[in-house]
Amino acid sequence: MRGGRLSRRWLLALPVAALLAIGPAAAASADYIRNAEYWLTEYGIRDAWAVTQGQGITIAVIDTGVDPNVPDLKGAVLPGADFSGLGDYRGWAPVGSEDSEHGTLVASMAAGRGTGTNAGLIGAAPAAKILPLSITLGEGAVDSDEQIAAAVRYAVDHGAQVINMSLTRNTLEWPVSWDDAFSYAADHDVVIVAAAGNRGSGATVVGAPATMPGVLTVAGVDRDGVASFDASSQGITVAIAAPSEELVGAAPGGTYLAWSGTSGAAPIVAGIVALVRAAHPDLDVANVINRIVTTAHDRGDAGYDPYYGYGLIDAAAAVSADVPPVTANPMGSLADWINVYRPTALSPAAIPTPVVVVPQPDPLAAPATGGPAGVLVAPIELLRTVGPGALAVLLFVAGVAGLAVWAIRQAEGTRRGR
C-alpha cells in the first residue's frame, strides 16, 4: 500500500508502489496463479494440509473490509462488523480512500479457497473462516485506536481463535484502550498475529501492535529466505519470519494483484496458526505460539535475532512436530507489562520505587554489521530489558552517577595538587 499517504502515524504494512494488477480472475491462468504461491511448498504448508486445512477455525481480519464476492473467497467470509462508520455493517465493503483492497488481499492469503482444483488463489488455511472487521486508518469520525480496540473485543466475542492485524501504528507505544482489548483476547485464548511493518513505507523499526507483549509479530523475507529490506522491518519483538516479497493475492472485482510487504507475510502466518489450532484444539495461546517459534528454521545469527525472530516458519513442523509444553507465552505477558509500566493505574502508595539494575550483556544482541538496516539502536535493546519508564530512570541515574564520579575525581586532583 502507499503507506506514507495514510497519515503521519498509521501505516498499512505494505511498501510503497507494491501493487501490480496481473489480470482478472477469469482471464488469468489458474496454473500461473497457484504456481506463483511458492510459499505453499517451500514453507511446509502443503505438507501440513495432510493433517488439517484449518477446519473449525475463524480468523478475524481487522483491516479495510473483505469483499465476499471474490471467487477465491466464496464461502469463506462470515458476516462481521464495521467500526469505521463508513463501511458495510457486516464488514463486507472495502473502505478507505486509498488501499481499500488491502483487507481482501490479506483475507485471501490466510484462507483463500481457490476457484477449483489447482486453480485460483488458495490461502494457508483454506478450510478456515474469515471474520471481516472493517476499520479506517486516519479517516472518518471514529479514532483509529478506538476502532481497533473495539474490533479486537468484537473478534473475541464472536468466536475468532486467531486475529490478523496487517497494520502498524508506527510508534513503539500504544494506547491504554489496547491494554484492555488485547488483555481481553489473551484472557480468552485468542492468538493475535501482527505485521512488523516495512522500511519501504517508513517503518524503520516495528511499531504497535507488533511491539506488544504476547503478540506473534511477523517479519518478512525475500524469495531466498533472506531478510527483506523494503518489505520488512526489524525489532526486538519479532517472533517469526515469512515470505513478504513476490506475493500474489485476490482483490475486489475478481482481480489478482502482485504485492509485497509484511501485510502479506502476517496472514500466511495467521493461516498457519489456524492449522495448528485445528490440529491441536486443546492448546492455549502460549503453546500455540511456542509451536510456531520452536519449530522455525534458524536464520541470521545463531538463535534469536531482530530480523528473523526465531527463524523461518515451517507449517508442517508446527502442526506435526513433538513439542514439549510450556507454561508461559514465549513472546511475553501483557498482564505483567501492564502491572509494571502503567503506574497511573496504581495508587500512589502502591507505585514501586524504581530499582536500577545494570543490564548484563545481551546474548541475543543485534549484529554489528550486515543486517538489512545496519546496527540495531542500543536504546531499543535496553527498552526490552527494562521498559520505557525504567529506561528513563536508568538514563537519569547514569547521568547523575557520571557527574558524581567526575566531581570526586576533580576533588582528588585538587588535593593532590596541594
Describe this structure as you would to a colleague.
By secondary structure, the protein is an alpha/beta fold. About 30% of the residues lie in helices and about 15% in strands. The protein has helices spanning about 30-35, 40, 45-50, 100-110, 145-155, 175-185, 260-280, 285-295, 315-320, 335-340, 380-415; strands at about 10, 20-25, 60-65, 80, 130-135, 160-165, 165-170, 190-195, 215-220, 240-245, 245-250, 255-260. The strands form 3 sheets. It has a 7-stranded parallel sheet with strand order 4-5-3-6-8-9-10, with helices on both faces. A hairpin with a 3-residue loop joins strand 11 (about 245-250) and strand 12.
Descriptive terms for the model:
single chain; 418 residues; alpha/beta; seven-stranded parallel β-sheet; three-stranded antiparallel β-sheet; 11 helices; 12 strands; disordered N terminus; disordered C terminus
In short:
This protein has about 425 residues and is α/β, with parallel strands linked by helices.
Secondary structure class reads alpha/beta
Please report which band the strand proportion falls in: under 5%, 5-15%, 15-25%, 25-35%, 35-45% or over 45%.
5-15%
The overall average pLDDT, rounded, is 82
The helix tally amounts to: 11
Tell me the overall shape.
globular
Helix content: 25-40%
User: What is the H/E order?
Assistant: EEHHHEEHEHEEHEEEEEHHHHH
According to DSSP, the number of beta strands is: 12
Radius of gyration (CA) equals 22 Å
The largest sheet is: 7 strands, parallel
Poorly predicted spans: 1-10, 23-30, 346-386, 388-418
